[in-house]
Design goal:
The protein is mainly alpha-helical and about 325 residues long. It has a single domain, classed as ABC transporter involved in vitamin B12 uptake, BtuC (Orthogonal Bundle), CATH 1.10.3470. A hairpin with a 2-residue loop joins strand 1 (about 160) and strand 2. A two-stranded antiparallel ribbon has the order 1-2. It has 14 helices and two strands.
Amino acid sequence: MGNIKSLSQKYHWFWAATASILMFAVLSLVSQKVSYASFTANFNIACYLTICALGQMFVITTGGAMDLSIPNMITLSAFLSMGIINGENKNFFPVFLLMILLGMAVGFINAFLVIKVRIPAMIATLGVGYILSTFTQLYSRYRFSTMTLCSIMKTCVTFRILGIPLICCIVVGLVALTTVLFKSVTYGRALMALGQNRYAAELAGIQVDLVETLAYMICSILAAISGMFLAGRTGGAFLGMGDSYLMDTIGSVVIGGTVCAGGRAEPVGTLLGAFFLCLVVTVMSAANFSVGMQYLIRGLIIVFVLVLSASKGSTE
């Protein structure tokens, strides 16, 4: 028991990994077979969630804030990328750059409202999300006219290496880079210092406003990229396609060991948390749970973990 406690204290993603293993075992029992294909399929779905969940992790690490514009950013990005690429390879990389610039702009607006105008993060990002949703509806009604994928996008979402989708390899690499950022890069350490104590971080000479602004920008950039690749995975864009990612991004981050009050980030745990949530959905679907029951159970899990993280953060 002592070894388990020491492991969970050293590796804050330990419980997310344990829960994922147990949930995969439950899935194997329900489906009556242990399937590598099932593992890769669920991991593939989790990777799309992980992209935007990592962005949410940056914002939460600033001190418990949450970006509620993520679902709307995903949907808008999906529509814009599908519409502008228009099935042509020559448009893929320019549109990819455009989505990054769009994410930077939206993230900057979110940060400006939170830092300079001093609107609470949840209210500011929710308001920006509604504006993005309006743009999406206007674009889908008057400008959007294609559901064709270019071959580069098809390769990104369908090509496999030893049975593992290419997008999964990309996301694992992104998680590794993010881990290095928080452990070895000045910005990552400054972001965690900001989340632990903003006043102390200022006294230490950290440009806290800049650090926080970059966190919101990174969050929106990752949400835009996630929306672009989600459109490729689903073969198109539709209104509300990012809605489920609102609570799932927060749940993935907190289940993975990131403190919801800020100051500690766990990129590996965020990936494992996303994988766990995807396995939960698959198990409930395999067990023929109703959609309403699935939402209820997912909500209860996320609320439970948030309460547990909040109480744990206060004791720390």
